[in-house]
Structure formats: structure tokens, C-alpha cells
Amino acid sequence: MALLALDGIGKCYRQGEIEVQALQDINLQVEAGEFAALVGPSGSGKTTLLNIIGGLDSPTAGCARLNDTDITQLNDRALANFRLFQLGFIFQAYNLVPVLSALENVELIMVLQGRSADERRERARHYLSLVGLEDIMHRRPSALSGGQQQRVAVARALAAGPRLVLADEPTANLDSENATALLDIMHRLSHEEQTTFIFSTHDPRVMERAERIITLRDGRIVSDQERELPHEAEL
Amino acid sequence: MNRTAAAQPLPHRGRIALSLLLQLAWRNLWRHRRRTLITLCSIAVGFGLAVISIGLGDGSHNSMIRNAIRMGEGHLTVQPSDYLAAPANHKFLGDGNALTQQLAELKITGNVDPRIALQVLASTAHNAVGASLQGMDMRTDQRLPILQPRLAQGAWLKPEDERGILIGAGMASKLKARVGSKIVLMAGKQGGDSQAQLGRVRGIFNSGMAELDDFLVLSNLGFARHFLTGEGADPTRAPLTRFAIFLDDPDQLPRWKTTLSTAVTGEGTAVLDWQEMMPQLVQFIVVDDAGNYIFLTLILIMVGFGIINTVLMSVLERTREFGLLRALGLSRVHLLLLVFCESLLLSILAVAAGWLIGGLAHLWFAHNGIDLSAVMSEGTQIMGTFIDPVVYTELSWARIGQLTVIIFLTTLASGIYPAIKAARVTPVEALRT
Predict the structure, then answer these.
(1) The listed CATH number (2.115.10.20, 1.10.510.10, 3.40.50.300, 3.90.1010.10) that belongs to domain A32-58+77-234
(2) Which chain A residues have a beta carbon less than 8 Å from that of B330?
(3) Which of B320, B325, B431, B432 to mutate: most A Cβ within 10 Å?
(4) pTM of whole model > 0.80?
(5) Which carries the bigger pLDDT value, residue B320 or residue A103?
């Protein structure tokens, strides 16, 4: 059974009198452990699709099953609970809670999950060291560079132990060096942690590292290509 | 690489620790240090003003009450039961000796003043005016410390002086009486007759209160008792019209009232507290308090808008952050609690800062007082009593608790709307901002 199964997903917005079809008849299956990119031009529906997969938005047609749970049927509270335990998010910008240190940001979701203080502290330190931030884990976001902030977001997403990490344009605000470094980290951890990544992008650097590229145009999937990539050790 | 996803029931979220919410709220509060400090200052100054205003109100009221009790009939009064409804000279306590004995056995912690109060007509060759003859014990009466220093002319009455009287400056003026003048005091008797006593003016006092200066005639008990004898009282049983009881601890009033009522209330005798004796004063204080509460309400509105402004601005500028938190798994209740905690902390700080400013101001004014004599050009008399020209702020523990709770709840309530606003954030819309 696929980790994620989208069946006939459609999303229609109303903007005044005009009806905008953001997504149409999206059918997609993603297996556990995949490192997949949603690509396409601006307005193609990438973010909308990620929002629906993440339970942040609801479709107007179809159903989305994650880990055999139809998330389109969950109420607000159940969705919040679902996101907490099953999903990790990495956003384009403003990823972190400004008043918390890097370590506290990574711990935050685990606090909500009810993990013990010792466990969450240990996991937070572990994942921050995996993304290379063990020396600056007590700094607040304002004292971190954009690349470092995104790495904290990756650590936060993974430390909570999600089945699926959704990343919306994670490298859009990063320079080339930081973007490459972040992608390498995400790719490596995806394999090490056996965590599924789906990220939207129109950044060619990101596409290069994706094992599967799903192309959206005008709210439809126009191509879905898989390819073998060498593991990070071989790069 | 692939991992087969098995359907698993979702674990339940852990209960978010209040300490985490408070920690987040505290840090959020100080994101805009200057804004928070300005808000706190405005609340604290408003609260301080309320404390001073209420403290001055309570201080002046208490001053009035204390003076009314001292100048009037004490904390408790024992008098004929039908006297209050229809005062008359023939209503008296016939056996003063027995009642004095009874009261002495109760060992009241305070003073018990025997008194005779009569309505008389005071006349000289020049004029006649209505007067209140107050027969009092010139050694122990509680009015002495107030009136004696206000003696303007002549000498104070000696305890053994059976013919001497003291009158106020207003009455002296109307009767054209001086020290040494003779004044005829005439009183109606039950049945229609009248009786008269001749008093000689030993001194003239000037209390500053027209009600006293124009109306009061002071004498020893023996002089006033002649009128009771004329009404048929037995002078050997020391008849009186009332006992004024002054308690050392006014807080013990309810207990002593009950004790006295049980001990001395019999046929024709009643025990009344000062509120029953001076209902007009009580009414005045209630009305004046209402004015203070209106002022307090205005302060509370100011405080409320201050809090709403700070917290709401803080919420509106964090819409995207709230969207992020919701996306990460915080529920609406968590966000509501988070913003509510910010209001809670702001409330606690506001109350603390308010008490710091208001408390210090209160301590200063409680010690040094405010001299209101300049603004009270028409004198300090109100409702038959007077306010000391220097008013000291007074705050009881009950008042402190009341003010704290009111300000605290107001500030807390002001945070409800921003908290609801935050809880309504939908992640996808918030993250678009």
C-alpha cells in the first residue's frame, strides 16, 4: 500500500464572481521513503497540492489518504493531531518561532507530542548535529543565517519522527551554496531516516537531486518521472 | 529505500505544558519591549490614580464616619426604642443607674458615655432660637477632645458646675449673648405644659460647623437632668436619654451590638449602631462611592483598551507565525491559551506595576495626607459631620483585594478578543500573508 494516495483531487477557488480551478483530477501515489519533487511554473498548483496533502487546506473533490487515513474526512482537531504525529513541514521562509532558540524550536513539536524532556532534548541535539548546527543550537533565529534557519527547520521536521515531510520551496530564499548544502542534508536524511520527502520547487538545483519529478501545469499532473540517483556517499 | 506504510492509529497528543505556554507568552510579551513598557506604564499610572482616588475617598469617608461617631452618638447607642422614629423629651431611660451597672458588667472594651439630649428653646431678651441641649459628663465624654480646643471665649465647664452652659458662636450671635450672659432654656412637657431652666454662659465655642455652632447648648448632666425630672423622672436613679458607646476596635461592632442587644434590650430600650443612627450619612457615602466607582470604571476602560491594543497588535502582526504553529500541530485551543497567557502575564505585571505606583503614592499620602482646606472654602462640614482638612488615604485589605481583582479581571478580559482572533487563524491563509 502506498504511503500517500491521492484520488481525483480537485480544488476550486472563488475569487469574486470568477471560479479558479487550482487543481484538477490529481491522481498520485507516493511510496514510503521517496524523495520526490513537485515542479512547475508559478500558479501551477504546487503549493495548493502540498497544502492539501498536509491537511492545511481541503480539496473540493477527491480524497487524500496518508498512511491509510483519509485526511479529507478529519475535523480540525483531528487534523492538528494528524499533522503533529505524521507530518513534518519546511516552509519557504519564516520557518521558526522567533522567540525560541534553535534547540527549543526543534523540541517544540515533541513537547506537543508529549515526549519526555530527556527524550526530546536528546533527539533535538541529535538532529541538530546531523544538520551541522550542534555548536549554535542555543541561538535564536535572528542570530542564524537563512541557510542555518532552514537546516533547523529540517531538524525540527525530522526530530518529530514524521512519515512524510512536506517542503514548500525550501531553497527559494537561499543562495546556491546553502541551497545545495540543504538539499544534500535532506537527501541524506531521507535515506538514513527512511522518511518520505515531497517538496515543491522550480529550482533546477532541487530537481537535480529529486528521485522522482512530478510536473504540474495548470492544476494537472503533466508528467511523472522516476530516476535513480547516486547516494550522497557516491556524489 | 521504500518503506511500506501500515495503517496505525494516531497517538494522542501530549497535554501541552502550561510552563511552555507561559515561557512562549513571556518571550512574546518582550518582543516589543518598548510597546509593552508603555502599555504597562499607562495601566500602572491609571491604576495608581484609581488607588489614590479610592484611597482618598475611603480616607475622607472614614474621617467623616469617625468624626460623626465621635461628635454623634458613638459606634453603638442605647436609647429608648421609640426615640429614633419620633424624638421627644419625655422619652428617656428612667433607670440610668441600673443600665450603667449592666453595661459595666459587660466590660465593654471602649468608652460608655451617659448623655442627655433634649430639644429646647433658647432665649435671651434679644432673641429666641431652637436648640439642642446636650447634657454630658465633662470628664469622660468623647466629644470633649474635639470641642474643647475650639473654645473661642470664656472657660470650659467644670464637672460640678450645675448652672453653667456652653454655646456656639452662631447661637451667641443670634441671641446676642456673651460669656456671663443668662439664657433661658425652655422645653415642652408631655401634656402641653412647659418647663424652663436658667443657664449662664461660661464659654463660647467655634467648631466651624454651623449645625453645632448655631444649635448646640452644652451642659453637665445635672443641669439637663432637671428637664427629665420635670417630665416625671426620678433623679435618684440618674435618668438619661441615651448611652453612647465608643469601641476601641470598631471591627468588633457587630459582636458588641449582639451582646448589648441581648443584655440590655428590654421593654422600651433599643441598641442601634451608627449606621442606624445616621442613615443620611450612610446614604451620602453610598452616593459618593458611586462617583468613585464611575471614575474607576473610566480607568478600567482605559486599561482595557490599553491591553486590547497591545495584545491585538501583537496577534495581528504574528498571523503568519500562528499559521506556522497551527501547521506544526498546535490546536486552536493551544493558540487561544498562548495569547491568553500573554494577557495573563501582562495583567500580572500591570497589577504589580500598578500597586508599585499606586501603593507608594498611597503610602506617601497615608503618611503625609493632602491638605484640602484651600479647596474646601465653605468649610469641611458635610452631612452633620466634618472631614478633617488634611485627608489621609486609607485602603483596607478588602479594598486592596477588590481593586486587585477588578483590575486583574479587566486586563484578563481584555485579552479574550485577541485570543479568539488568534485561535481563528487558518494555517493556509495565514501562511499566504
Answers:
(1) 3.40.50.300
(2) 80, 112
(3) B431
(4) no
(5) A103
